[in-house]
Design brief:
Chain A: InterPro entries: MetI-like (IPR000515), MetI-like_sf (IPR035906), Sugar_ABC_transporter (IPR052730). Chain A: Keywords: Membrane, Transmembrane, Transmembrane helix, Transport. Chain A: Pfam families: BPD_transp_1. Chain A: Its main location: membrane. The complex is a heterodimer of chains A (290) and B (426). Chain A has 290 residues and is mainly alpha-helical. Chain A contains twelve helices and no strands. In chain B, helix 9 crosses helix 18 and helix 11 runs parallel beside helix 18. The longest helix of chain B is centred in the last third of the chain and has 20 residues. Helix content of chain B is 48%, strand content 12%. Chain B is globular. In chain B, strand 1, helix 4 and strand 2 form a beta-alpha-beta unit. Chain B has 426 residues and is α/β, with parallel strands linked by helices. Chain B has three domains: 32 residues; 188 residues, 3-Layer(aba) Sandwich (D-Maltodextrin-Binding Protein, domain 2); 174 residues, 3-Layer(aba) Sandwich (D-Maltodextrin-Binding Protein, domain 2). Classes of the chains: A mainly alpha (290), B alpha/beta (426). At the A-B interface, helix 1 of A face helix 1, helix 5, helix 6 and helix 18 of B.
Chain lengths: 290, 426
């Protein structure tokens, strides 16, 4: 039988340790979170009351909208800027010096990046002091750029600064595979730059952009450090809201905190499946030659 | 054990058994183990202090405590730890961790039936103590067993019996005492406000120079509790049980006052500092002119290390300043209760308490009854200069207010966002 063929079993055996670790650690964690969100805190009976309560809460909806707004806008902005930089600067990135320079932000942990933003861009930050020094603003408090605002400019800015190098990292190998002949073919057939991009680059870029986008979106939606440093009092991003409910002195909100995390996970899973479905369909179209 | 814990403990154990089926343990074994260990560890309290000292000798004690203050960390690492090593041959290891996370860890261990925990001493008070006590995360009633507690602490005093309204019952030993004060830069503010009404006037005249940490922060809810005292009155709150009708009666006044302040606060009240350290940062940068917080002596070291301006002074406003005690306790699954008892007893010694009071060390007030101390220590206590930014002992004593019932704090935290932040900014 094929099953007993050692060559067939080998990859499974090799994967087994990591599958066990991931399965138990992540699986057990997710299971505990689900169980806690569906159990009455005092008695341990199964219930959906916490989800009902959550969906009735204005604070939850405001947090959800804020999180979606931040995750979508910073992901799209990072992808666009990353794509633009890779296209324009790909020749320089062959040189190791430029490549290291652009990847520099990846060395910083996210919370360090958030503190750097405070250090440079806050009302009492370095930039504001320079403005004051040169007399462009009369008082430190008049500094026009506000990082902690309803628009969450600070959070989005931090994510863009951190994630653009990641987008470049993902896109660069693709650009380095493109051969000049393909471009020449399009040009010979009378195509302009847009046609070159659309016919030679886009088909290979699209799946990678989607994949990178999902990674960034999932991370931004569920990450805690940056919004906890740069967020405002109300509304808070979902992970901060969940953390707050979880670590409150009154432990009765803990199921709610878990419910928030479960819903966040569901959103990420939904978007991931949706985009896999889209890329899969495209691949099938390409395979059929349509 | 309450029902929920029993269920989750059992389900936890069941899952663990599935996972590590080789170990092959059952819930019954766990419960037996638990009973045994409880019997052995509590019997310590029946033996003589000398026996406990002997038992603790050569052991290791793991002290889990909030680690956000360099001065406090130095005190533990460089003064307390060497002293314990020298006198009792105990090795003290400090582990920095927030108390909520410590309790989370203990709660998880409780559910999993883990009886040999890694924590021997915790630093705790208030709502966290209430939580730990209600969830059976603490070891037992031990304070009467400590020689220094017996000798130097005034047990009759109400502050030694209730921690934020929760009866202590010997489950935690007092360690220090702090009072809530406001700090200001005397070079920029001539006359700090003397009451909450004054404060409202002040922020209107000087917009953007004052704010307080959000309600979820310990110091932020501390500020709001003072507003409650101001609007509801001392008589109705100090040492009284929770009375929701008071809040109904006065809620318009309370939220009205905070909404009156909001548009004149830092950043027009659109956002608040999320922690006290954020507010301290704003103050140190000169963005705001005031900061605040528990511990009447906290400005001293921040001035000394150059974080705060040298002209920083403190003040309290009418109706007064809330003070509270902080405590030391032993978790239910400590593996070295003898060492923990000796360590806590040593931290309550007059020497350790005096050292802790020095402004360059920590500046934290003593919990010992001054009248019970030997004369030489009473003299030393009087000689300690707490620093220019600290109010006099009389002034602090005159303005002292007890912590109110924790239910009030829960109420503030629950409604502050919707009543103040949302309503004012929409």
């Amino acid at each position: 039988m094929k099953w007993f063929n050692p060559e067939t079993i080998k990859p499974w055996l090799l994967l087994l340790p990591s599958v066990i670790v991931i399965g138990f650690l992540v699986g057990y964690g997710v299971w505990e979170a689900i169980a806690e969100s569906f159990r009455e805190w005092e008695t341990g009976k199964w219930t959906v009351q916490y989800y009902e309560e959550l969906l009735m809460k204005e604070a939850f909806w405001d947090s959800l909208f804020l999180s979606m707004y931040i995750a979508i806008s910073s992901t799209l902005a990072s992808l666009l800027i990353g794509l633009f930089l890779t296209r324009v600067l790909q020749r320089y990135f062959m040189n190791y010096r430029w490549k290291s320079l652009v990847w520099l932000p990846m060395l910083f942990p996210h919370f360090v990046a958030a503190y750097l933003i405070i250090l440079f861009l806050s009302e009492s930050g370095i930039l504001s002091s320079l403005f004051y020094h040169f007399g462009w603003v009369n008082e430190i408090a008049d500094f026009p750029f506000s990082i902690q605002s309803q628009h969450s400019a600070g959070i989005i800015f931090t994510y863009i600064w951190k994630e653009v190098p990641f987008v470049i990292l993902m896109l660069l190998p693709i650009y380095q595979q493109f051969s000049p002949e393909e471009e020449a073919t399009v040009r010979t057939l009378g195509g302009n730059s847009w046609d070159v991009f659309k016919t030679t680059e886009w088909p290979s870029l699209f799946p990678v952009l989607i994949e990178t986008g999902i990674i960034l979106f999932a991370f931004t939606l569920a990450a805690f450090e940056v919004p906890s440093v740069l967020g405002i009092t109300y509304p808070k991003m979902l992970p901060v809201l969940s953390y707050q409910w979880f670590f409150e002195n009154d432990w009765s909100n803990r199921p709610l905190a878990m419910a928030v995390m479960i819903i966040t996970t569901l959103i990420i899973l939904f978007i991931a499946f949706l985009s896999f479905w889209v890329t899969q369909r495209r691949r099938m179209h390409i395979a059929r030659g349509r | 054990m309450s029902r929920i814990q029993e269920i989750s403990a059992k389900s936890c154990v069941a899952v663990l058994c599935l996972l590590f089926f080789l170990v092959g343990c059952s819930t019954d074994d766990k419960e037996e183990l638990e009973e045994q260990s409880e019997n052995t560890s509590e019997s310590i309290l029946n033996q003589s202090w000398e026996d406990t000292l002997a038992e603790a000798e050569g052991s290791e004690v793991h002290f889990y405590m909030w680690g956000g203050d360099e001065g406090i960390n130095h005190y533990i690492d460089d003064w307390v730890a060497p002293r314990l090593q020298e006198r009792y041959n105990i090795t003290l290891t400090r582990h920095p961790m927030d108390i909520t996370e410590i309790l989370q860890k203990l709660q998880t261990e409780k559910r999993a039936g883990k009886e040999d925990g890694s924590i021997d001493v915790v630093w705790i008070n208030g709502e966290n103590f209430k939580n730990a006590k209600e969830n059976d995360l603490l070891w037992g009633s031990f304070t009467d067993y400590l020689p220094n507690y017996q000798q130097y602490v005034n047990k009759e005093n109400s502050e030694q019996q209730y921690d934020f309204g929760t009866t202590i019952e010997g489950m935690e030993a007092p360690w220090g005492k702090v009072q809530y004060v406001f700090l200001y830069d005397s070079a920029k503010v001539e006359e700090p406000p003397a009451s909450f009404a004054d404060l409202a006037e002040w922020v209107k005249k000087n917009p953007g120079t004052f704010t307080y940490p959000e309600a979820q922060d310990f110091s932020g809810s501390g500020f709001l509790k003072h507003v409650l005292y101001d609007k509801i009155g001392i008589e109705a709150l100090d040492g009284k049980e929770y009375n929701p009708s008071l809040l109904q009666q006065h809620s318009d006044e309370i939220w009205g006052y905070l909404n009156e302040l909001q548009p004149h606060l830092w950043r027009e009240g659109e956002t608040y500092p999320s922690t006290l350290s954020d507010l301290d940062h704003l103050y140190s940068q000169g963005e705001v002119l005031f900061t605040m917080g528990y511990n009447e002596g906290r400005a001293e070291r921040l001035i000394a290390d150059g974080t705060f301006p040298e002209t920083t002074r403190s003040f309290v406003m009418e109706p007064g300043s809330i003070g509270n005690l902080h405590f030391l306790s032993i978790p239910f699954n400590s593996t070295n209760t003898a060492g923990a008892l000796v360590t806590i007893n040593e931290l309550l010694s007059p020497e350790a308490q005096l050292k802790k009071l020095e402004p360059s060390v920590w500046g934290d007030n003593t919990v010992l009854d001054i009248n019970k101390l030997p004369d030489s220590y009473q003299e030393k206590l009087k000689d300690i200069e707490r620093g220019e930014s600290v109010l006099s002992a009389d002034e602090l004593q005159d303005s002292f207010l007890n912590e109110m019932d924790p239910e009030y704090t829960e109420w503030i935290k629950e409604y502050w966002i919707s009543e103040v932040v949302q309503s004012g900014n929409n």
